[in-house]
Amino acid sequence: MKHLPSERHTLSIIVDNEAGVLARIVGLFSARGYNIESLTVADVSADHDVSRITVVTSGPPPVIDQIMAQLERLVPVHRVIDLTEHGPHVEREMALVKVAGSGDKRVEALRLADIFRARPVDTSTTSFVFEVSGSTEKVNQFIALMREVGLVEVARTGVVAIARGPEAV
Amino acid sequence: MGTEKTGAEITIEALTDLGVEVIFGYPGGAVLPIYDELFKQNRIRHILVRHEQAAVHAAEGYARASGKVGVVLVTSGPGATNAVTGITDALMDSIPLVVLTGQVPTHLIGTDAFQECDTVGITRHCSKHNYLVKETAKLGPVLHEAFHIARSGRPGPVVIDIPKDVQIMKARYDKPGTITHKTYKPQVKGDLASIEAAVEMLAAAERPILYTGGGIINSGPVASQLLRELAKACGAPVTSTLMGLGCFSAEHPQFLGMLGMHGSYEANMAMNRCDLMVCLGARFDDRVTGRLDAFSPESRKIHVDIDRSSFNKTVRVDLAIQGDVGSVMEDMLKVWRSRGHRPADQSAWWEQIAGWRSRNSFGFEQKGEALLPQKAIQRLYEMTKAKKPIITTEVGQHQMWAAQHFGFHEPNKWLTSGGLGTMGYGLPAAIGAQLAFPSALVIDIAGEASIQMNIQELGTAVQYRLPVKIFIINNEYMGMVRQWQELNHGSRYSESYSDSLPDFVKLAEAYGWKGIVIDSPDNLDDGIAAMLDHSGPVLVDCRVSKLANCFPMIPSGAAHTDMILSAADEVGPADDDAKALV
Ligand SMILES: Cc1ncc(C[n+]2csc(CCOP(=O)(O)OP(=O)(O)O)c2C)c(N)n1
Ligand SMILES: [Mg+2]
User: Fold this and answer.
1) Does pLDDT of B238 surpass 70?
2) B44 burial level (CB within 10 Å; 0-12, 13-18, 19+)
3) Mind listing the domains of chain B with CATH numbers?
4) What is the pLDDT of residue A2?
């Protein structure tokens, strides 16, 4: 089964916001040899009782199915939704991108940032920190361009995702 | 409104409310308050083992034999780490346990305090669930929830780590009503439409087989009864995994024996050639399937399991039914009967099976004077079967011979470490089973190497006057290791000889056991009779021929059809892929 072509899937995992829950999820992925391409977590309910973990993973469809089943088995897991299977959804991530330089490069960095609707959130005479958000590809592309104009370092959130339309999943 | 109680008092009261009768444990600094409460009461019996690993295996034996939750109490640090093997064993074999571990007080957690270890971290992936209880008020609810989780759904071990200050602080304790968990809701009933589809497939099958496993034992004795009814209704042959032995009677004409690596030829061939496989509470373990791409190529497969993650994990199935196997079989029978089904004509199938059976794959040849291990187990079975014994085992050849040559007729009589394959399981498990059934005949069929892994438990049996019997199949080798070295490593017996063995009889006597030696076919029956005659614990050192191997065998990575039936079968050297498998 592991020889089938690999697919990228975005999973939303709704869990009880209790101690150790993230370790359970992450440990499950590492113990069973599943991939994690990105992972985000934050509590999402008014009473802070429920957290939403977004995992981007990859594997052949039977493995993705196995990942879902294994996750659902964990006691503090409420629900697992495979957004990729579920249908139309929005995926976003944010990055903070630091570039340093002067002269033309500095001007070019600003111009590119403008095209990507990246906002400078910190400025010095020799550097910028840009905030950029969008799909993973857009963020990747922006970072690739920044390499040519003095990229210093990057911090990324990883993907958060939600289904389109009025309903909760 | 109850008055406030200490965490230790709450622990004992909650366990009492949960109907706990026996705890297996070992004291230490971080659990002394709980031990103090145990001292003050007499409703719960504490069994003091000699090593925490044994406490867990004893609790497993108790649970497997009785169907109740096994309870363990150990201290922090080394107490907890010693318990890890047993906890993992229980996870692999789906045994319901609640393991209480002491922990350093909350304000010292994370400081590398004396006897601190990250118990919840260490046991997170070898338990079904675990808790670190940081407030005394949560202790009662957590204990009740832990029992609910341990015994429902796919059973397993639940660990509760209790810091010492939580045991001392006070809070209210109220006995809760029925537990409903907000996220954990195991599915017991199977989907009716799928069950109907399964019944139609079964009624139409010409070459069906029921592939049964430990899930049927876990579901309770009623499930074994239902299996017998289902088998009767559909007329299909029945095979069982190592863990499922006893859910169907070994002497039933429809029983093909155990399947898998050391299973019968007829069971494995029938699995390979069937047109419909109904997997009931088993999980397509690698010991069972052999080479996956050659596994039962012509069959449609139905899988009934309470754990959805067992579906399609290694083998794709055509119909998966999630639910308790007992409940699903009950519904299958209802549908079968209400539709007035009769089995399809299976005469050609049974003829084929008769052909495979005639190979007598569990047969062995008595050559010369040697006492064959298979013979020893066969006689042990024949001489004890009227007593309906509970059999535990260690791990190795003797375990497989016991599975092959000891007949099981009822569930909960066969306790063995299947998933983890833990040497040292058998003696403590026998102690646990004997506690659950004080007047039963309980025998640990052991190997001379394995028995030494928890030999200290001889003392526990004496302390609690448990008449456990140990029957050591002493071949002076880690026989299963030697067998693999013969198959895969040019018979280079690297470290597999059991050198410097103790005088087992003297060792037994030193602990207050009776010791008996059997060393030839001539004193086999007498030795077994003497063992059975003695009312106290007996260790039998049964010295068998040293180089016997366990057949039949599907070598690692081979297909069911590539079974080696006896040592005489030609086998080429294993290739590297096969050697890499375990
Ligand atoms: C704790 C543990 N360590 C190592 C092994 C690997 N192992 C499997 S069988 C075996 C040999 C067992 O020897 P013995 O108890 O004499 O049984 P025999 O095979 O000779 O019947 C070993 C070392 C194991 N299963 N468990
Ligand atoms: Mg041996």
Assistant:
1) yes
2) middle
3) 5-171 (3.40.50.970), 192-357 (3.40.50.1220), 373-550 (3.40.50.970)
4) 57
Instruction: Report residue B495 as tokens.
Output: 């470290």
DSSP A99: E
Contact between A98 and A129 under an 8 Å Cβ cutoff? The reply is: yes
Other CB atoms closer than 10 Å to residue A126's CB: what's the count? 11
Domain annotation for chain A: domains and CATH numbers: 7-86 (3.30.70.260), 90-161 (3.30.70.1150)
User: What is the ipTM score, two decimals?
Assistant: 0.92
For A12-60, what is each residue's pLDDT tens digit?
Answer: 999 999 999 999 999 999 999 999 999 999 999 999 999 999 999 999 9
Query: What distance in Å separates residue B313's CA from the closest CA in chain A?
Result: 6
- The average pLDDT across B190-216 equals 98
Q: Are strands A89-100 and A127-134 parallel, antiparallel or unpaired?
A: antiparallel
Asked whether B118 and B163 are in contact (CB, 8 A), the reply is no
Reading the block at residue A71, the tokens are 């996750």
Q: Which residues pair with B163 in a beta bridge?
A: B103
Candidates A75, A77, A78, partner chain B, best to mutate (most B CBs within 10 A): A75
CA A73 to each of CA A70, B154, B248, B306: distance values in angstroms, whole numbers, following the listed order: 5, 10, 29, 11
Dump pLDDT digits (tens) for A88-135. 999 999 999 999 999 999 999 999 999 999 999 999 999 999 999 999
On whether the CB atoms of residues B277 and B247 are closer than 8 A, the answer is no
Chain A positions touching B311 (Cβ under 8 A) are: 69
Chain A closest CA to B315's CA: distance in Å? Answer: 9
Contact of B9 with B37, CB cutoff 8 Å: yes
Chain segment B28-70, per-residue pLDDT in tens = 999 999 999 999 999 999 999 999 999 999 999 999 999 999 9
From the CA of B451, which ligand is nearest?
A: 1
Ligand 1 mutation target, pool B57, B84, B454, B478, most atoms within 8 A of CB: B478
pLDDT at res. B2: 65
Burial of B352 (0-12, 13-18, 19+ CB in 10 A): middle
> Looking at the whole model, is its pTM more than 0.90?
yes
